[in-house]
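FOLDING PROBLEM:
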Amino acid sequence: MNNVKQRVFKKINDLHDEPHEVDVRNTLSGDLGLDSLDKVELIVELECEFKISIGDELVDDIQTVGQLVQTVESILLAKEPIMEDIGDRSNNVVDKC
């Protein structure tokens, strides 16, 4: 799921005026300078990008880019296929995007 990592890195860089050299070891707040609002924006962007929902209990534990990538990958692996033409209206992700 290297594609997941690249897409997460891109979303992180989209939050900044100037591109950062993002690494899985970077901390979101310390190394990348994301404040709590930036982190929420990033999570929402990733939820829309991947059509997933990242629970608040998971978000609170994510400190590094690597943890964020692993969380997205885990959710994608556990996710049941969704019919694209119908969508999943039981999930609020559709409404946020």
Q: What stands out?
A: The chain is about 50% helix and 0% strand. The helical segments are 2-14, 36-50, 56-59, 65-78, 93-96. Confidence is low (pLDDT under 50) at residues 83-90.
